[in-house]
Structure formats: structure tokens, C-alpha cells
Amino acid sequence: MTMSNWSAVKRPIPVPNDLTRAFWDGARRGELLFQRCHTCGNRQHPPAPTCTNCVSTDLGFEPVEGRGTIYAYTVMFHSGDRRFADAIPYASVIVELDDAPGALIAGNLLGVPYTEAHIGRRVRVVFEPLNDEITLPQFELDQ
Questions:
Q1: Would you list the domain boundaries of the chain?
Q2: Residue 10 CA from chain centroid, whole number
Q3: What kind and span of H or E run contains 95?
Q4: What is the C-alpha separation between 136 and 30, in angstroms, rounded?
Q5: Which of 22, 37, 58, 100 is most enclosed, with most CB atoms within 10 A?
Q6: Residue-wise pLDDT tens digits, 37-96
Q7: Inter-residue contact 32 to 66 (CB < 8 Å)
Q8: CATH code of the domain occupying 21-141
Q9: Helix, strand, or coil (residue 108)
């Protein structure tokens, strides 16, 4: 199995807004930030205006370690967006982090063939700069 070639992929650039800016600023610094509810302690992702547990609006962003398990995955064999064609086949993963149970984050599994993606496999976050402003949290196997 060969590994996906991400070097030739020109990724779409996310556009931060008032709700997501802290997340993207943290990623640019190499820090994974999730929202935490100051009322009930719930950690959540993606960012939302209210707590997904208690509906409080008293939320802030706090760092999470970035280690967890693959909760779900899909292998991309065809490119719906031609910009991703050079990376095919690749594994997109949904990860549940150890210190944010129930909160899920999506990314790609980097550095290994797509066949290494398995539910329950341990992964850790890595940061992939797209430009000076935007860095993507991605995942690699946690050996």
C-alpha cells in the first residue's frame, strides 16, 4: 500500500468567523482548543453558541491534549472535489479525544497507508499549516 500524497493537494482554506476564530488561532499556534462550558464542564466541538449539554451560553476555549481513538472513518477512493485527486486513496477519520469524551473532531490520517485506519486505533493530533493564517488539525497513529 502506498501512502497518500498530500504535497500536491491545494486544500480549500477554512474561513474563521466569530464563533470559530479561537479554534483556528489555537491551531495556528499548534494548540488544539475545544469549547468548555463553565456551567456544567462539558467539552464540545465543533464550536457552538450554546452548550450541547445544558444550553448555557457561558462557554470558553481550553486546550485538549489531542490524543484519542478513531471513532469512525471512511476511505476516499474517488474525488468529489478534484483538488483532492492526488491524495486518493486516503482515510478521513472522526476522532474522540481522551479528555473530551463525546466531542468528535474530523481530520485525515497522515503518514500511513489508508488501510491502517481502524475504529479504536490510537491517534494523536498533528498540525498542518495551509498558509500563514490557517493550520489544520490532522491525525497520525499514536505509537
A1: 21-141
A2: 18
A3: strand 90-97
A4: 9
A5: 100
A6: 999 999 999 999 999 999 999 999 999 999 999 999 999 998 888 888 889 999 999 999
A7: yes
A8: 2.40.50.840
A9: strand
